[in-house]
UniProtKB/TrEMBL annotation:
Protein species of origin: Lysobacter yangpyeongensis
Family, per entry: Belongs to the glucose-6-phosphate 1-epimerase family.
MF-aspect GO terms: isomerase activity
This protein's UniProt keywords: Isomerase
Catalysed reactions, as listed in the record: alpha-D-glucose 6-phosphate = beta-D-glucose 6-phosphate
Protein name: Putative glucose-6-phosphate 1-epimerase
EC number: 5.1.3.15
A Pfam family that the UniProt record links to this protein: Aldose_epim
Isomerase keyword on record: yes
Amino acid sequence: MQAQPTTFQQTPCLRLVGRDGATALVALHGAHVLSWIPADGRERLFLSARAHYGAGTAIRGGIPVIFPQFAGRGALPKHGFARTTPWRLVGVSDRATFELVPGATSAAWPHAFRARLHVGLDAGVLTVALEIENTGAHEFAFSAALHTYLAVTDLDAVALHGLAGRRYEDSTAGGAVRQQTTAELRFNAETDRIYVAPLHPLSLHDGPHRLRIDQHGFADTVVWNPGATLAAGIADLAPGEHRRFLCVEAGQVLEPVHLPPGGRWSGMQRLG
Ligand SMILES: O=P(O)(O)OC[C@H]1O[C@H](O)[C@H](O)[C@@H](O)[C@@H]1O
């Protein structure tokens, strides 16, 4: 894999090029994958036309790294600090590795940790892996997710397969626990579900296109689209843009990870 530094929207990025010509763009801000274009030339990740890229902001689209807190399930700002903090590039081999260690933005979470994100481009496949290490003397607990915004041509033509019979917490209904009865999930209103340990792979059907979604290490899968009403109140989404993505997130949400001193945890999501 080749890599070269570049900028996008005045944000320092790394552009990755795989052997087959596939590309990915990763911002150092958040170690945030902004784009993945396999060799066929079709972008697979959604990125909002109104996304903000400044210091301390969260980028709307791509693959936000959520750590050490998911959503508002704790005292930290929503979804934690990893997505709003600059990471550093460690190096590039068959994958690019980025690192985050405690700093000013994590002061509200007083634990010694090392977070690493690995991004790999293989023929037709994007692999993103998150590794958390406890570098301190005390156990800590965390949640995490790869909050992937998958680009779709039109939400009306989208169906997610592989969740039949699975239990989920419905965040649009105060966390009520439900079971999916249909073979496929379609999206005609706000959807915000945390599926408990679903089987993988899932398959995203977008008209004639198919995308395989696989995960390891992460116990849960979050499926999110704000729907028209909620989307209208999201300032960094352009009108109608909610129809252009579906978030399928590899997450460790319902059971936080308890990491002892010296302990390591890793989770990955594979698309393609
Ligand atoms: O707007 P954000 O802070 O990026 O959060 C976007 C969404 O993330 C997750 O998918 C949660 O399940 C949603 O409840 C939340 O609205």
